[in-house]
Amino acid sequence: MSRFDLRPVDLAFSETAEKTYICEGRLRAGIDDVWRAVADATTWADWFPGVERADYSSPPPHGVGAKRRSVVSGATYEETMLAWEAPHLWVYRIDRCSLPIAKAQMETTELESDGTGTLARWTLATDRRLLLRLASPFLDRQLQKLWTTALGNLDAYIASARR
């Protein structure tokens, strides 16, 4: 299987990326429960659409510099954690992927308590390759739909874990 190396980026990439997609939503669950599920790679297959499996390839404790692997809709990703500020900020870059999606890519999850639940923002910053460029006219709407579905699934996952 082919592997495509992406350019390593740091947190400043969010300001210089060719294209940035921002998705927002709200969960009924509290911020600490949401954080635990987001930071635990093994839960992603239970709530994020398309994620078949995810885990950390580096030993605990996990945080900045940890390596994560995921399989999403058949594509494999190798990632490095760039920010880990519980329970508010979780950022990773994609180092390698089995699809030629981008030259560089970073994903940010920001969480904020609103007193009765959690506001969640997902930002995908990317220097796109042709595959993402072709999808771009539809991607804003599709990513927001994906994020909304993921948050609904995450709320249900957290509620079922409490039972």
What this model shows, in words?
With 163 residues, the protein is α+β, with helices and mostly antiparallel strands. The protein has a single domain, classed as Alpha-D-Glucose-1,6-Bisphosphate, Chain A, domain 4, CATH 3.30.530. 31% of the residues lie in helices and 40% in strands. It has four helices and eight strands. Strands 1, 2, 3, 4, 5, 6, 7 and 8 form an eight-stranded antiparallel sheet that branches. A hairpin with a 4-residue loop joins β6 and β7. The chain is globular and about 45 Å long. The termini are far apart. The mean pLDDT is 95.
List the helices and strands and how they pair.
Elements: E1 4-5, H1 13-16, E2 19-27, H2 31-39, H3 44-47, E3 51-56, E4 67-72, E5 75-85, E6 89-97, E7 102-113, E8 118-128, H4 130-162
Antiparallel strand pairs: 1-6, 2-8, 3-4, 4-5, 5-6, 6-7, 7-8
Brief summary of the model shown:
The chain has 163 residues and is an alpha+beta fold. The protein has helices at residues 13-16, 31-39, 44-47, 130-162; strands spanning 4-5, 19-27, 51-56, 67-72, 75-85, 89-97, 102-113, 118-128.
Annotation field: number of helices: 4
* Helix/strand/pairing category: alpha+beta
**How many whole angstroms does the radius of gyration measure?**
15 Å
* Succession of helices and strands: EHEHHEEEEEEH
The domain count comes to: 1
User: Remind me, CATH topology?
Assistant: Alpha-D-Glucose-1,6-Bisphosphate, Chain A, domain 4
Query: Rough shape?
Result: globular
Q: What is the typical, i.e. mean, pLDDT? A: 95
- Low-confidence regions: none
CATH top level assignment: Alpha Beta
CATH architectural grouping: 2-Layer Sandwich
Assign a percent range to the helix content.
25-40%
Q: Name the CATH homologous superfamily.
A: START domain
For the secondary structure, the number of strands is 8
The oligomeric state of the chains shown is single chain
CA-CA gap between termini: 41 Å
Sheet bearing the most strands, described?
A: 8 strands, antiparallel
